[in-house]
Each structure stands twice: as structure tokens, then as C-alpha cells.
Structure prediction request, 344 residues.
Amino acid sequence: MRGHKWNPGRCAIGAQDEKSTSGDREGIVIRSTGGQCLVQVADTTWRCKVRGRLKKGPRESQTVAVVGDRVLFMVIDEASEPPSGVIEEVLPRDNKISRLAARRSGGQVEQVLMANLDQVIAVQSLREPAPQKSFVDRLMVAAERFGVRGTLVLNKMDLVPAGPEMEAEQKVWNYFQDLGYTVIWASAETGAGCDAFHDILTDRISLLIGASGVGKSTLLNVIQPGLGLRVNEVTEKTGLGKHTTTRTELFPLRDGGFIADSPGIRGFDPWDMEPLAVRDYFPDFQEPGQSCHYRTCMHRDEPRCGVKDAVNRGLIPIRRHNAYLALLGDLEERKAQVGYRSGG
Ligand SMILES: Nc1nc2c(ncn2[C@@H]2O[C@H](COP(=O)(O)OP(=O)(O)OP(=O)(O)O)[C@@H](O)[C@H]2O)c(=O)[nH]1
Ligand SMILES: [Mg+2]
Ligand SMILES: [Zn+2]
Prediction:
């Protein structure tokens, strides 16, 4: 996707240990909480505050510097443990993954989950908790929207008995593979699929996203035992995870690349998406959409719609079309609430 790699062994993030012209150091944010960040430069982790004036810009303070951001910082104390600095500038982002944050004050707030990534990986467990297909639909839409590779990992295969139950799962999820997304069937318990998981992470910068308890941290511990990430059982009563991982954090991978583990999220409302553009983010709608009577067809109420026709003929699952209509409805409602948002 891009020329450079953040491979710590070779041409690392922080291979540029020397000072830049402005006297600042350059590093990458591996953890961000409030106004404090951990910034990685080669093998050293710095603790950096975010310069106050950076918080006052058009961006929300929580997303001034996010995991994956390349930043310039001024050294405060190189001898302290860990060394400390102040972030002066967040360098322009190649891309990001962003969603609408839970509304606290009723306003609409962008939550940037990560910047400068190659791949977003939706992690689902086939059982305990049950998979959420609509979550995967939306995350793959976001991957298309933000221009990053979308990948799907289905964990806890060991909990699905072979036979009809497994066949039903295969039917659902192979559809995503047919759309061109990589789909990995895995079990952190038995190790199945873990080599394939390791391979898709190598030499890429990836973000794992999925509900609490699906096994994101467990999978990472399997492919890189030294990480020692905290994991927790799913409560029997609710079938939900316990939000064991509480913040997004980026880790270097032994064989090259970086992986961000993130806290469980249940919903994903993509940020900054035009209702009119949504149809372009469903790869399965492209060919049938060619035969819609109206070029501006939204595949909703219009007559002679190629996409609805494909749904009726069983070529596109009804739930895919419903997922599209639901997302479209959400975006229109959001737009009606705020009017047209100018700038970004
Ligand atoms: N049976 C089975 N259990 C698994 C598997 N992978 C993970 N688990 C269990 O699922 C539970 C939740 O795993 P975590 O790794 O903490 O899940 P998480 O996605 O990181 O959850 P949050 O950090 O809360 O978002 C743990 O008890 C794991 O042992 C698997 O492949 N099979
Ligand atoms: Mg976790
Ligand atoms: Zn149509």
C-alpha cells in the first residue's frame, strides 16, 4: 500500500533517531490517553504530553494524537525513566479509521480509532459471544471508505460442532471471502488458523476490532507469547466479555509490522460518510447496480433496480441489503440532525 514499513528491526519508525531541522524528534504514538502519549522512537519509549495549543484546534481533544500518529516532540528530560517530551506537532495522516463516538452531550463527535494503518481486522467469535454480522458489514464499509484493507478473523472455531452448524457458518462467512476480503477461521484454543493470522499481520500495520470477549488479546498472545496481554473469561450470565482491554495500544511484531489491540466495541457508525456514497462501498452491489434503470438509484424504492433484483434472485443475501438500508437510514438521520457539516 505504501512504500515505507515500520519494521523495528530494519528501517524502523524510529530509525531516524537524529534530530529534525526544528530540533524536534520524530516518533510514533503507541498509546494515547487524555493529554498523555507513549511515543516510540527505535527501541525507546518516551512519555509525552500533548502541547496545550494542539488541543484547541478543530479536532476534538481526545483525537489530537491517536495510536499510529507520527508526531514531532521536544525533549524535556532524556535521562528520566522513561524519557519525557512534549508533542509539538502531529504530522499529516496517510489515513485513519474513524467512527461516531458515543454521544455524551448530544453533539456528534469523531472518534479516530487509529491513524496510518494498512489493515483493519474485524474479529468475531463464532460462539460466546455470538457473531454480529451487521458489525462486520459496517466495518468492511468503513475499510472501503477509509481506504484500508478489510480482513475478517472468525475465532473460537473449537466451539462449533462439525456438521450442519459449521456448514451454516461457512455459508455466511464465505460470502465475505467471495467479495475479496481475507477470511481466517481460527481458534486460539487449538491453534487452528493462527499461522494464517500471523502471516496477514506480518509487515503490516493493523488494527483489531471486535466485541469484548471475542478473543482479540488471546489471539495476539498465541502468535507472540511475549506480549502477555491480559485476557478474561466471558460471563456466563450475559455471554458478554468484561472489557478486559481498556485502551488501544500498538505493539511491534517480532517478524515485522505492528498490531494494535483495542477495547471491545459493539457498534460501528462510520464517521464522515455521505449517504449517497454508501452504495459504492458494497462491492457486491457494483455489478448488479449497472443494470439499475436510474443511474442515481439508491437501491431502495426505485423501480427496475438491479440490486433489488439480485436480492430477489438470491444472489445477494437479504441481510446484506438490510444492512445497507440500515446504514443509509442512520446516515440520513444523522445528517438531518446536524445539517450539512462543513469542513472536517
Ligand atoms: N473456546 C475458546 N475460547 C477462547 C478462544 N479465544 C479466546 N477464548 C477465551 O475468550 C475469553 C475472552 O478472551 P479475550 O482475549 O480477553 O477477549 P478480547 O476480545 O480481548 O476482549 P476485550 O479485551 O474485553 O475486548 C477468554 O476467556 C479466552 O480464553 C478460542 O479460540 N476458543
Ligand atoms: Mg482484549
Ligand atoms: Zn438500484
